[in-house]
Each structure stands twice: as structure tokens, then as C-alpha cells.
Design a protein that fits this description.
611 residues; alpha/beta; eight-stranded antiparallel β-sheet; 27 strands; 23% strand; globular; binds 2-deoxy-2-amino glucitol-6-phosphate
Length: 611
């Protein structure tokens, strides 16, 4: 949720940390702060964007070779200078940054209050820091030891990094549930929530695991568990280029990522899909093909846009593999005490690989001997590391908070898995299999063609930008696409929008229809098309404004609509990868027309690492 950055080494810490916070700002942008150690502890923090903190520090002496920085997504205490991180301890000697939630903080706060502690902020983080300082004082032990003792009493999720005025050559960090990456340089170390602040300095990283603690000096990295046993840091080489996390000349990351989709879908298929040979190669799936084929059911677990990808996959797997699929909201699945049997196959879908609800849901299922397969975008992320197998979506870093290219890459991976299993199970004919391989292979080119003519979408966005509500409708494979279109509009334009199965409309939502309600149909040619056309006429009969995603050349449907988004013809199984793109662009251009920050929509964050 929040973004944390820290540095120790010969460089000026401030510019390294500031740049890192800007790279992580998609994780939370309610406030920002930095603490530097240079002949004493200096803490600077400000409500709002990192740039506002930067402006407030102009002209200050910010020289230091060790520091910590934080960009916040508020959980405990509203966005303010006081609740911003770093938080400092009662003695003023310690400072901490924290990503996560300390669930038993009020109990700890009561204990400390009884001892006379006073608190400046409303944060759980300040409570944790004073709890650690109190242990250090009472046990006359090192900060490292106090952290280890303190964390054994903590309930919740955390990445914390601490600096100690009395030990200006050491950073202490620890992790449980939230992500922490350590960049290993020559005589320097970089700490961050993900690799994007580190990539320009080093490609050598260590992914810290749950219940691990790191003691970091400029030229030394020690990893330990909470039991004080030393662990060997496992160094991984990052496979990412700096350009991937730059805007590359686009106004926004969201627009860049929408336009990257011909390449990202291609990268997702490359080395896996071989139309000539009629094969799909996915090592991380092949190992579990038997279990998948013989599974009585497959459970897809995810949140948000990834959940929508799971819903499309449900239709595909049931049609092609004849396997029962359940699509679960991770936040409900983790607490519902679901029936999980040994050998059940759970597919966890996640762009970030760090979404707390999805992570804990699969950890629970894994503890009941289910097989966990991850469909994940961020390499080395927690969900990828917890999963038994799976496949990366290779969409590259997705910075825009609204997920776009990751969604189409998830669909490409899930479609390949389904085709692979269906062929193995012989539940589809060789002819249909070959046809779908070709259809899948043709998608990147069709997306490229689709993105060549989008000017009209700007005009349509301008036309409907002041609508109070939107309704998105689709049938079959296009129903989840309608849900995704509605979610994109909500996230980016703050307009209330609902996605619905088109036939369900008559059971209530049609009461909303009048001349002021734009109704977006995903009405491309498929098995249900004639039914959708009837639904369009029902809306027209009530003066609703009809916008529709339609198949090229479908003049009949085009004639019925007020505005259309034309997409190339494609088999209904792969069409969702095309049909969603005009809806991504509609949301983007309505957000732009309303002058909203489409990369950092209010109240949102890219990776939801708290429940
Ligand atoms: C989508 O645009 C949102 N950013 C959000 O719904 C997201 O899909 C959800 O938080 C799941 O994230 P994940 O794919 O990283 O697990």
C-alpha cells in the first residue's frame, strides 16, 4: 500500500530517496516524508504528494549518507503532516517508516500509555516504535534485539525500516506480509517496496521473506529470522530495464500501458505459443497438468481487475476443459472457511503479486494441501514465491494504478493454460484447438490495428463526461468485460458505474434507464449476439443512450447505437482481449476531460498490501 525507500552508502541519501519515492508514489500519495541521519536525526514530512515535500525542503541542508523515506496510503489517521511517516520515538532518537497495519496497536498503546507515553499522531506506527524503544530501554539491549523481541508481540502486516541516531551506520528492517526488496550495490544498499527505485543503481536484489529481519550497513547485509538465526541472503538478478518504468513520451503511464498491449500480449505468447507446431509450452503449468486435468474443480482467487480476468477464465475453462470453475473474491474466500480438499487446484491471479487478501487466501489453501498456481506479473513477488507453479504474464512494470495491460496479459495466459489442458484432456477437437491457437496468435496485430483509430473515443468521452451514472452490459465472455469497463470508469473518472449481465437488466437495473443514462454494451459478434441486440432495443425503447463495442462491419448493430467502438472480428474466446481496450480508453479520456490525475486516482493505490 505505502511505498518505502531507504539508502545507506557513499552517495547523498536525499536525492536517491526522493527519486525512489516518486517512483513508488503509485502505492500511496496521501503524504510523504524523509528522515536523514547526519550528526543527529532530521525528519521532514508533509501532507500530499512527494513534490510538495520536495518544494518544502528547498534550501535546506540535506547532506547525509543514510536515510529512510515513505509515501503514504492512510490507514490509521487521516492524511496530515503529523500522521505522515517517518514517525519518531518518544526519545527522539529513533525514526521508523512502515507499510502495513499493526492490528493490536490499541492494546500496545494502552500498555504504553499506562507507562506515561504520549503520542503525537493517530498512527499505529508511532505506537510500534515506542513499543520497541520501551523494550530497548527496559532490556538495555540493542535496537536489533528490541525489534526482534517487539515483533514477536505484534499482530498484523508490516515492512518497517528504522534508523537510530546513536548508530548512524546501520539500518534495521523487517518484513511480514508486505513486500521488501534490498538492492545490493558496491559498498551501498538500497531498500524499497519493489524494484522500481533500485533498478537504476543495481540489478542485484534480495527479496526479504516473512518473519525476516535485515541489519544493513553500507558494506554489509545480515539477514536473520526472529529467532536470531542467521540466514543466507539469496541474490536475484533483476530482468527489467529503466525505460520500462519511464513514461516514454506518453502523458500518462495509463495511456502508455494501454498502447503497450500489442507488445505485452505478444511477449506473453512468445516462447509459449507455437501455432506451426500446434503446441503451448508453459513449464510452470506442465508440472501440474495431471492435477489440473483430474481436478474436480478449479478455484480462481483474486481481487479487482484480476478477479474479472478469473471470471473470463471461468467461461473458457468450463467450455474448453469441461472442468467446474469457481471464481472467488480473495477477501471473502480467506475468511469464509471454504471447503478445500487435498489436491484441489487454486489459481491465484494478481498483477502485483502482493495483494494481501489473495496472498493470505492461498497461504490458507496451501496449508490444506491444495495446489497453488500463480498467474502473476511482478517477478519474484510474494504470490509467485508462495505458489507451487504457475506462469508470469510478462506485461512489464504496470505503474498506472488502473490495471490495463496486465488484464489482457492475464487473459492470454489463462487462455493458453485452458487450451493446453483441453488438448491434453481431448475435450476439444484438433481443428478447434488449431483454430483457437491461430486466433490467439492474431490478437497482438488486431490490438495494434484497433489502437490506430481512437480519436473518436476522445469525442465520445467529452460527450458523456458529465454523466452521473453509467451502466455496462454484456453476455457470456463479454459480461466480465462489462464489469471491467465499469471498474475502469469508476477508478479513473469517479463516476458511479455498474456492470451487469445484459439479461439481468430486466430484473431491476432497467429502472435506472432514461435519456440521461449512458448504457455501454459489449456487443461483439458471438453466440449471444442476437440476444444482446434485443437488449439494446429494450434500452432504446426507454430513451437510454446506447454506446457499444461492436464487431467491424456489423452495420445492423452500429445502426442501433448512439456511439460505437469498432473492434476487429475475433473468436468469442479471445475477443475479451480486444473488447476491453475501447473501454480502457473511454475511462482514460473521460478522466482526462475531467482533469483528474489518471495515474494516481484518489483514494487508490496500485498494490493493496493491507486487508
Ligand atoms: C484495478 O485497476 C485496480 N488497480 C485493482 O482493482 C486491482 O486489480 C486489484 O487491487 C488487484 O490487484 P493485483 O492484480 O495486483 O492483485
Amino acid at each position: 500500500m505505502c511505498g518505502i525507500v531507504a539508502y545507506i552508502g557513499p552517495r547523498e541519501a536525499y536525492p536517491v530517496i526522493l527519486k525512489g519515492l516518486k517512483r513508488l508514489e503509485y502505492r500511496g500519495y496521501d503524504s510523504a516524508g524523509i528522515a536523514l541521519l547526519n550528526g543527529g536525526l532530521k525528519v521532514y514530512k508533509k501532507k500530499g504528494r512527494v513534490s510538495e515535500l520536495e518544494d518544502s525542503l528547498l534550501g535546506k541542508d540535506l547532506h547525509a549518507n543514510i536515510g529512510i523515506g515513505h509515501t503514504r496510503w492512510a490507514t490509521h489517521g487521516e492524511p496530515s503532516d503529523t500522521n505522515a511517516h517517518p514517525q519518531t520515538s518518544a526519545s527522539g532518537k529513533l525514526a521508523i517508516i512502515h507499510n502495513g497495519i499493526i492490528e493490536n496497536y490499541s492494546q500496545l498503546k494502552q500498555e504504553l500509555t499506562k507507562k506515561g507515553y504520549k503520542f503525537n499522531s493517530e498512527t499505529d506506527t508511532e505506537v510500534l516504535l515506542n513499543f520497541i524503544e520501551d523494550i530497548q530501554k527496559n532490556n538495555e539491549c540493542s535496537l536489533e534485539e528490541a525489534v526482534r523481541i517487539g515483533l514477536k508481540r505484534v499482530v498484523g502486516a508490516y515492512v518497517i525500516v528504522l534508523v537510530d541516531q546513536e548508530h548512524p551506520d546501520t539500518l534495521i528492517a523487517a518484513r511480514k506480509g508486505s513486500p521488501l526488496v534490498i538492492g545490493v550495490g558496491k559498498g551501498e544498499h538500497f531498500l524499497a517496496s519493489d524494484a522500481s527505485p533500485i533498478i537504476e543503481y543495481t540489478k542485484e536484489v534480495v527479496y526479504v521473506n516473512d518473519y525476516e529481519l535485515a541489519i544493513i550497513k553500507a558494506d554489509e547485509l545480515i539477514l536473520k529470522n526472529l529467532g536470531n538465526d542467521k540466514l543466507t541472503p539469496y541474490i536475484t538478478k533483476l530482468d527489467m530495464e529503466l525505460a520500462a518504468i519511464e513514461k516514454g513520451g506518453y502523458d500518462h503511464f495509463m495511456l502508455k500501458e494501454i498502447f503497450e498491449q500489442p507488445n505485452t500480449i505478444y511477449d506473453c505468447l512468445r516462447g509459449r505459443l507455437d501455432v506451426e507446431a500446434g503446441t503451448i509450452t508453459m513449464k510452470g503449468i506442465e508440472e501440474y497438468a495431471e492435477q489440473i486435468m483430474n481436478a474436480s474443480r478449479i478455484v480462481m482467487v483474486a481481487c479487482g481487475t484480476s478477479w474479472h480476468a478469473g471470471l473470463v477464465a471461468e467461461y473458457i475453462f468450463e467450455e474448453l476443459c469441461r472442468i467446474n470453475v469457481e471464481v472467488e473474491y480473495a477477501s471473502e474466500f480467506r475468511y469464509r472457511n471454504p471447503v478445500i480438499n487435498k489436491g484441489d487446484v487454486i489459481i491465484a491471479i494478481s498483477q502485483s503479486g502482493e495483494t494481501a487478501d489473495t496472498l493470505v487466501a492461498i497461504e490458507n489453501a496451501k496449508s490444506k494441501d491444495a495446489i497453488i498456481l500463480g498467474v502473476v506479473n511482478v517477478v519474484g513477488s510474494s504470490i509467485a514465491r508462495v505458489s507451487h507453479g504457475g506462469a508470469y504474464t510478462h506485461a512489464g512494470p504496470e505503474i498506472g494504478v488502473a490495471s490495463t495491460k496486465a488484464f489482457t496479459a492475464q487473459l492470454a495466459v489463462l487462455t493458453m493454460i485452458a487450451l493446453k489442458i483441453a488438448r491434453k484432456k481431448d475435450t476439444i477437437s484438433e481443428e478447434r484447438y488449431r483454430h483457437l491457437l491461430e486466433e490467439l496468435h492474431a490478437i497482438p496485430e488486431k490490438v495494434f490495428k484497433l489502437l490506430e483509430s481512437i480519436e473518436h473515443i476522445k469525442e465520445i468521452a467529452e460527450k458523456y463526461k458529465n454523466a452521473r451514472d453509467f451502466l455496462y452490459l454484456g453476455r457470456g465472455y463479454n459480461f466480465p468485460v462489462a464489469l471491467e469497463g465499469a471498474l475502469k470508469l469508476k477508478e479513473i473518472s469517479y463516476i458511479h458505474a455498474e456492470g451487469y449481465p445484459a439479461a439481468e437488466m430486466k430484473h431491476g437495473p432497467i429502472a435506472l434507464v432514461d435519456e440521461n443514462l449512458p448504457v455501454v454494451f459489449v456487443a461483439t459478434k458471438d453466440a449471444h449476439h442476437h440476444k444482446v441486440v434485443s437488449n439494446i432495443q429494450e434500452i432504446k425503447a426507454r430513451k437510454g443512450k446506447v454506446l457499444a463495442v461492436v464487431t467491424e462491419g456489423d452495420e445492423t448493430t452500429i445502426g442501433l447505437c448512439d456511439d460505437v467502438f469498432v473492434v476487429p472480428e475475433a473468436d468469442e474466446i479471445v475477443a475479451p482481449m480486444l473488447n476491453v481496450i475501447p473501454l480502457q480508453l473511454l475511462a482514460y479520456y473521460i478522466g482526462i476531460a475531467k482533469n483528474y490525475d489518471v495515474d494516481k486516482p484518489r483514494n487508490l493505490a496500485k498494490s493493496v498490501t493491507v486487508e
